Amino acid sequence: QAWQRSGAASRRAAREAVAITRELDDDGTLANVLTTGRRSLSGSGLVDEQEALEEELLALAERLDDPGQRMRASLWRIVTLIEQGRGEALERLHQSAAEDARILRMGNYHHSLAYSRASLALLRGRVAEADFLVERAAAVGRDLGLDATVVEAIQLTQLMGVRQEQHRLRELRDQAAALFPPTSGFQWPAMAFIDGEIGAMESVEENVDALLDGFAAHGATALCPIGVLALMAAPIARLQDPVRAVRLHEIVLPFSGRGAYLAYFAGPIDYHLGLLDRVLEREDDARGRFADALAFCRRLGAPRWAARSRVALAEPRREEASRATGLA
Fold it and tell me: What is the rounded average pLDDT of the residues 52-76?
């Protein structure tokens, strides 16, 4: 509950537990507590701390010969590498996780591997394959009797990325509204993002404000990760709202140089900062952000987000566009 409602409290409790457990000199207990600690960091954007825990968990898994622990740490490692913009080891880690999955019976491992595969396909630009794999991962979760809300939430989140690439986001709107009640913390970002992308702006301001207010109260949590916050740059840019742009820019700026991740790669943080800088008429800053985003995508191997960054970088300055319009 703390993990969902107060990210800072959850991370503080996890760090205290890890410190106490280290004094016991028991690898099995330490592995379990480190797992809780790493889970508390999900969505926090604290990638250096994530990396340190993952490396320790992988070493413990080898010492304990625990394939479940090794697989879980490998999948977390994939997410952190994506957030760091390091794409060279992703396929190797997936292969390692798949080998461990063959000897594991627990359904949540197989579901996690399935939707991680979908995420990687989308990151690499294989949209049709990702579409198939998202549906397959959801089917795996349902067949294994996993919590339906979790399975559906992950499926919907990944479909946001897939349908965005297919220009079919409108299809998801009713599905998102039906899956999550209006008071759900997840509905706010999903609806704000979808409505902003399809141009249905009536409820965007309310949903963006609900998300920003939630972050102000509790920080980054399972329901309000940094990646979701970064996605709000696009609807704010469509609104051309400088007040909300300033507010979001201050939240997301410390994570410049990282990637946004929420069950799929949702672009470099610098791309989203560039959108906000453009709203604030800081064109030089925006162009620097888009250039950094393009370099990030090239390192990561994310061709579709690289293309978005190139397009944003090539967009003419407002004064140039105005002059060209006048000449025409």
Answer: 95
Cα Rg of the chain (Å, integer): 20
Question: Residue 321 class from Cβ within 10 Å (0-12 exposed, 13-18 middle, 19+ buried)?
Answer: exposed
Q: Give 31's contacts (C-beta < 8 A, 6+ positions apart).
A: 57, 60, 61, 64, 66, 69
221-243 average pLDDT score: 90
Looking up tokens 């701390």, which residue turns up? 49
Q: Where are the alpha helices (DSSP H) in 65-186?
A: 67-84, 90-101, 107-123, 127-143, 148-166, 173-179
pTM value is 0.89
Q: What is the pLDDT of residue 2?
A: 46
User: First-to-last CA distance in the chain?
Assistant: 59
Instruction: Tell me which residue has tokens 């090239």.
Output: 298
Identify whether the C-beta of residue 140 lies closer than 8 Å to the C-beta of residue 114: yes
Structure tokens at 7: 């990210």
Q: How many whole angstroms separate alpha carbon 57 and alpha carbon 53?
A: 6
CB 300 within 8 A of CB 123: yes
What is d(CA 108, CA 34) in angstroms, rounded to the nearest whole number? 19
CA dist., res. 116 & res. 114, Å (int)? 5
Go through the chain and tell me how many residues it has. Answer: 328
